[in-house]
Amino acid sequence: MKKLLFGLLIACFQYVKCDDPNIPIVITTWNFLNSTTKAWEVLNAGGSALDAVEQGASVCEEQQCDGTVGYGGSPDENGETTLDALIMDGKTMNVGAVGALRQVKNAISVARHILEHSYHSFLVGELATQFAEEMGFPIESLTTPKSKNLWKKWHNEDNCQPNFWMKVTPDPKKYCGPYSKSEKGYHQASTSDVKVDRYNHDTIGMVAIDKNGDVGAGTSTNGAKFKIPGRIGDSPIPGAGAYADNAVGGASATGDGDVMLRFLPSFLAVEEMRRGASPTAAAETAVARIAEHYPDFMGAVVALAKDGRYGAACHGIHQFPFVVHDLTQDKSRTEHVLCS
Ligand code: GLY
What radius of gyration, in Å, describes the C-alpha atoms of the chain? Predict the structure, then answer.
């Protein structure tokens, strides 16, 4: 604590006036220290918030953070890893997003290329791969021996349990597909059947503010383990996975994406801050809105105001770690918030 106060004092003299906003700054979901440090290096060298978010999240994609970001994680029912990512520019309100991306490792960079090199905001699946190939990204398998073994165990030993099917026959609680719909069929998927935790629905979500006060936000994930092929979660959806607006700040979310995307929690957190709420209160409101309807959901929101104040809120786990780096620190710092 003493060190932090001393750091703040030095920063006040060396870099900013004490009443200046605390920028540049970056905040990241979970304990993704290497990504945050990379983003900070970009910001500290005078780089843009968008570059910080892209390069920071790329580190997690390369390092396969928690097995839930990047290639070789969360195989779908066919054993294939597909990626979702988003990047949003709070200065222009432009968005690049990619969903169910196949055979390309650099999901957030593909999203950045959609933002920079097309009029569109969101490309998906096989045709997003085609776009990426045209932009020069290598096409390669996202399957690894680890993801292959994970899928084999799920399919051959665990009889395709858990899965995300409902009201189909044969009984998805006992058998593998293919399934067909059945009004009298079996009802399975709810959050209590499929274990939703940080190793199943984890996302790197990042919000950065650069020295010019420009806000960038972004996400990257390989989604939900054993998802139905074609599934896209909350992470690439603007306002769900992340949102940024220079006039206010930014926010990003992680957790059970199938539920969370119904509530646009990042958008809500930014709108709450616009109405004057603190980042912590804004994140709490976004999380509480979901919990009202889905008391068992697991997820978290981080929020960053344009003056560098930040906060987080979470639900369905004991506590949620997030990482921050600003001028007062020489290392990225993990903080924790207790969940509702
Ligand atoms: N939050 C990541 C996902 O559910 O896809």
Answer: 20
